[in-house]
# Entry
Amino acid sequence: MTTDTHLDLTDQEREANLDLEQLKQLVGLVEYDENKDVFPVTGWDAIVFVVGNATQTAHYYQSAWGMDLVAYSGPENGNRDHKAFVLKSGSIRFVVKGAVSPDSPLVAHHTAHGDGVVDIALEVPDVDRCIVQAKKAGATVLEEPHDLTDEHGTVRVAAIATYGETRHTLVQRHVGGHVYAGPYLPGYQPATSTFVKRDGAPKRLFQALDHIVGNVELGKMDEWVGFYNKVMGFVNMAEFIGDDIATDYSALMSKVVANGNHRVKFPLNEPAIAKRKSQIDEYLEFYRGPGAQHLALATNDILTTVDALRAEGVEFLDTPDSYYDDPELRARIGEVRVPIEELKRRKILVDRDEDGYLLQIFTKPLGDRPTVFFEVIERHGSLGFGKGNFKALFESIEREQEKRGNL
Ligand SMILES: [Fe+2]
# Structure
């Protein structure tokens, strides 16, 4: 901490052997002055999913998504309420939880929302400072700051409410000069993968988490942008309005907020008026309210990642061949690191802006309901979110929506 605008690796990034130059490219990390931040956020801590069957979901993330099991909590170590599996890939930590006891609060959550993200946990250097700021700015504090301790040390946590039934747990892993040394949080025991990777499988399929999109109700987007600005000191990144991302049927508005170092980026969507039901409306109906729509996983080799995922049966949204043959698009995207034919074969989308380009692809919904899904993204200078692809993408989503009878 010798300069005003310093940038350090997080513990999770260091453990994953990532370096700062890689992260600037992977997720568009920028330098900023943490001392002037009212609510300093270091980065993502963990994304917590509630699912109908955590045992099987944990297997899926290992077998299909190449993640490593690192920790576990369940009846075998005194947690009679639920099973929780902690999975890692690069600097990303996913926690999947499923009820064991029929009386678990996770049952009601899952009944209402299906599989989804219940907690976007963020690592912060000072939980108490964040909660003072959150209260001053009128946020709902769900958990006051408190210590969790076991034989590996102490973690200090608190939680605030965000859209719908989603929360941000704030996790401080450096307490009183010591860093917590356990595999996740106190109460979790170390675990190793039950799945043996196939010969020749890549070491990992993604290195970092780029952004998480939240879907909120009509008219609520600016309210939540204001929440992240006022409560958490997030800055506005880019703005998309109305016509930009409308097809004949589907339309939405989207604004993007980010924390100071841009590790944490939250695009927020609301439905816009269109001829027929927007994909955001479909999400809100089936998730029973606002929630996390998609998580963008950053890779430095999207071709290998997508090939490996397809080989394991992961399904992606289709993109019409016309997308790649369109002369306007070809002119707009210019030169990218691989021939367009390679992208066309894999249905990977390209977008370019003044800073560079990005390659991206979207999966079909992960669970039974048409709600949460993943994006795989490879950035080359562009700090955007694929605005130019929204129309092509929406038309593809709508073809799927029509098959489900929800258009
Ligand atoms: Fe995205």
